[in-house]
Write a sequence for this structure.
């Protein structure tokens, strides 16, 4: 293996730069030339590549975002786009690819591999934590910490005004971000797509909190909750219960930025390096992950088909401790 192409794709996540650094420096230490592909699959189609060396990844481990930039490429979803992408794989002499991203990235990688035989190893980089085959994805821990910081601030103002807040967090169709951030901020309720949201039950709960004279109430709503999101739940609740002054906050893309946490930097370093090792060992079409502290490799088909089940004990714990 003489040359590896690496790219970041899909929604960016804090820690992607640490993963890029690990891929580049592990490649170099194994005598492999790392080639950075800019803007993910779109950059591969457009032939936007940069030769990388140890210096090109200096001083990035602490930076959020991705120095290679990211995109969600529509062109790569078409056979014609993939044909162009493969022409560039040949042109630049890439013997393997490291794809850093989420499920969409790996679904694309699998198709590309099946059509053209190019070897690809995936590194899970997404704040959503919604991939099977790793306990945590790169960016999840940082996003959680960001949410917790933001909600703690909201709690301060909510208590001052005796207000009820509905706070929407990201996570696509999974409740990982909502659940762990909800526990961390002592949310009075956590609404996630993995459980059914009953407005009546929520209103009963809020009435109880009122009896207990709680000075503030925080409801964390996962963006993928079937209720439709924080604004929708707030409106439905208000029809039955308007004893608290109510506000809605959608945290949005603030959750995707920022300097990665130490946990994410270590995870990204291990996974980026593990991806290069995998290519050298001849592995293909797999995502590298950490399960029970060990590096493991999971076929893309499995990694993207479903994600780990949410730990419902954590939800019960959150409910118990918030009463
Ligand atoms: O997958 C990461 C994520 O931030 C999701 O949590 C969210 O649903 C989505 O990306 C937002 O995507 P975009 O940045 O394209 O609006």
């Amino acid at each position: 293996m003489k040359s590896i192409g690496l790219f970041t794709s899909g929604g960016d996540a804090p820690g992607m730069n640490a993963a890029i650094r690990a891929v580049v420096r592990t490649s170099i230490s194994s005598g492999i030339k790392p080639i950075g592909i800019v803007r993910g699959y779109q950059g591969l189609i457009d032939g936007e590549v940069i030769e990388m060396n140890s210096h090109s990844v200096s001083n990035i481990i602490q930076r959020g975002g991705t120095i290679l930039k990211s995109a969600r490429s529509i062109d790569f979803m078409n056979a014609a786009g993939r044909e162009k992408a493969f022409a560039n794989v040949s042109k630049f002499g890439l013997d393997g690819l490291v794809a850093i991203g989420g499920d969409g990235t790996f679904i694309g990688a699998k198709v590309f591999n099946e059509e053209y035989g190019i070897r690809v190893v995936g590194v899970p980089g997404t704040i959503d934590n919604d991939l099977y085959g790793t306990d945590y994805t790169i960016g999840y821990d940082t996003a959680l910490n960001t949410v917790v910081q933001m909600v703690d601030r909201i709690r301060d103002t909510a208590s001052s005004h005796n207000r009820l807040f509905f706070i929407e967090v990201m996570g696509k169709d999974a409740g990982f971000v909502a659940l762990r951030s909800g526990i961390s901020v002592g949310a009075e309720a956590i609404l996630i797509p993995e459980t059914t949201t009953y407005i009546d039950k929520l209103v009963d709960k809020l009435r109880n909190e009122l009896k207990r004279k709680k000075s503030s109430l925080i409801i964390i709503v996962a963006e993928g909750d079937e209720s439709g999101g924080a604004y929708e739940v707030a409106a439905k609740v208000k029809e039955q219960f308007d004893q608290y002054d109510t506000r809605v906050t959608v945290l949005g893309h603030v959750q995707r930025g920022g300097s990665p946490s130490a946990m994410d930097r270590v995870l990204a370093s291990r996974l980026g390096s593990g991806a290069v090792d995998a290519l050298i060992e001849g592995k293909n079409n797999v995502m590298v992950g950490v399960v029970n502290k060990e590096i493991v490799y999971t076929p893309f088909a499995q990694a993207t088909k479903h994600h780990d089940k949410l730990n419902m004990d954590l939800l019960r714990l959150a409910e118990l401790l918030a009463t």
